[in-house]
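Researcher: I need the complex structure. Ligand is magnesium ion. Inputs:
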Amino acid sequence: MRIVAIRETPVPLQAAFANAVVSFAGHDVSLVAVESDVRRQGRPLTGIAFNSIGRFAQSGLLRDRFIPRILAADPDAILDAESGAPDPLRVRQAAMSGEKPGGHGDRAAAIAALELAVWDLRAKLADEPAWQTIARAFGREPQQAGAPVYAAGGYYGADADASALAEELRGYLDSGYRAVKVKIGGTSLAGDLARIEAALAVLDCPTRLAVDANARFDAGTAETWGLALDGYGLRWLEEMVDPLDYRGHARLAAGLQTPIATGENLFSRQDVVNLLEFGGMRAGRDLFQMDAGLSYGLGEYAAMLSEAEARGHDRSQMVPHGGHLINLHIVTALGLGGCEAYPRVFAPVGGFSPQCRMDDGRVRPGDAPGFGLEGKPELRPWIERVAP
Ligand code: MG
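Model: Output:
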């Protein structure tokens, strides 16, 4: 098997709203296609993926460095001997040739898109959904009922007063979601407490509501807000401080009963080791939200998971950021604690597909080969650009 072409296109997100820090109006992602010389039904078998959501398209890094390195590699050296298919780790190593350690940043997302497209290609070669391919590769029994999900919403937009928020959350409950997350930190503490109380009036139970500050606060402000929120008994407090402020996380964890959640802006195994060693994360309570699509792909994600488990944390504490099909497959395959969902935001890559089934707060990915991204009608025109 040979990789014969790799294509990328930036895809704009439909996202006219903001969290406490970022307006998503100009955001995009890199959609990539890894085309092989295998043909099925008259078309080349092609792996498709993207670099999750939130770190922009990485067209330049892909075009100038990573794609040319893979295409220039010895074709046999990037295959795994057993299946003859491209090996995600070897493809990543070829792409990273000449790159220094550390300072992971945007290249971690660029590499992730390529690595995940190789997983999609491998699943399509085996003619099975990616959750089966991934579970087998990591020796896991997949969650047959799918992944527990929560609806991420409650952004700050033009109509984001408390009554609009309550209406939005009622819509998620009507769609089958049992838990939701809303943004905080985009207004005053009093304003956000009013939003939280409006949300709780809809949800009834505080453990169905998580809140996300998107790293808006310095450590002192985070403690003030954390203490004000702790009495509610919420599901979790997310990214209350800078992702790399391990001391700040440790102080929060030591002072609060509510679970804290972080990790979506950690892009390497070593960053997660630092969080585990110095961030005070509590086994069985706090949540880790690293995202394979932002952090070099599934191989690096699995290494992060191993580091957490080696320190007494459980994979049920792993709830990846990014409400899209790729992470739904990964959570289902690896038996993780849950998956973010974007029922109304970040189209065309956010959200699941019509083939996915929601039942009692869980979503089961479909059975189409690969990640099933071709089953998302709104994404199809973009896939046709990279896989004509
Ligand atoms: Mg978040």
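Model: Summary of the prediction. Residues 212, 214, 238-239, 264, 321 surround magnesium ion (CB under 6 Å).
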